[in-house]
Batch of 2 targets.
Target 1
Amino acid sequence: MNAIKKYIAKRKSIVFLDLEGTQFSHECIAIGAVLATIKKNGEIKKRKEPFKVFVRPKNSIGKYVEGLTGITSKTISQYAVSFKEAIASLKKYIGSYFKHSLYMTYGSHDIVIIGSSIKYNLDAPKDDLAVIQKNYCDFHYVFQQYVKDDNNNSLSLVHACELFDCLENGKHHDPSCDAINLANLYNAFIKNRDLLFERYKIVLGNFNHLPKPIQSVVQKLVKGETVTPEFFDEAVKKEINND
């Protein structure tokens, strides 16, 4: 799995990260994280208890996000800290692993939230945030290269965890729960090679950018059928002759 190896090579730890943001300004309103040390083969060796902090945005949360996350203006007024304080707390949670960890999210929107939060918070700790941005991996980008649904669509984090039978009980779009689910999915992806093998074959069979003769060969192979040189010749002739 070269797509993931280039990210975890020489790494000893991963911070599985999930950020929730406001509906319109995309400012951070919550951060969830799970720090894990990893073995040489990438499997999780040990996890720390999950981290969660609510963050006070400069703009309104938005009704859709409130309904999705359960985070309301009341939550923010009672429990939230500034973005600067939230990053300081995250850094303290990660400890000595902070500068050398891989920061893994499911999708690229978490990095968008960091960028937006920097824009709205002039006192944001840019050097610390640059560490996260520099050592960042979008696991969804890696995962979808090998696993999609039967219609060739990308899977949400919840559906991906269901497929790999590693879904954490808890409220989805709770950042700490989503960080746990991401850690679970990553570890299942590394360990469950049999399921990954079967799902990757489906992705290959549905790959639409191959030349048609090669695509027809791959589709037969995915179905477990024998492909002969004669079949390949006929597929090439059919494409040339437009039959």
Note: Residues 35 and 94 are 7 Å apart (CA to CA).
Target 2
Amino acid sequence: MKISEINRRLFLKQVLAISAATTFPSFWTPAKSRTLPSSPFVSANDRVNLALIGIGNRGGEIAKDLYNTGLCNIVALCDVDMEAPHTQEIIAMFPDVPRFKDFRQMFDKMADKIDAVTVGTPDHSHFPITMEAMAHGKHVYVEKPMTRTFNEVELMMKGGKI
């Protein structure tokens, strides 16, 4: 087993733990845990290159939580409304990261630089974004509802092979 596989597994385990932890209000967590990471234990080469699709509201919360693990490099930001007030905090956190308004263009230009994506968009767009990411061989973090229909679930279970 390669070291990169172990680190990706660790990343996915921590994603699950973080998603469970975000169900608690932020005032229940210590203030120190809400700061940006400075993890000296993980080298930059061992981090997952993560693209954030949907960076406002819930997508922004997901982005901050995953970044705070210290296990990912944010390599792309994607949101249909980059000028919206609710996206500005994430844009300010990552001012030098490439930005896209269309996830398809992001994959066309940066697929080789992305290991995984988060999908923090409105429910009806979860399926097409997840399918596109899977078609490029990317790991995907998407919250419920993952799809809208049973047919979409079956297509997703086939791994994007239509």
Note: The two ends are 30 Å apart (CA to CA).
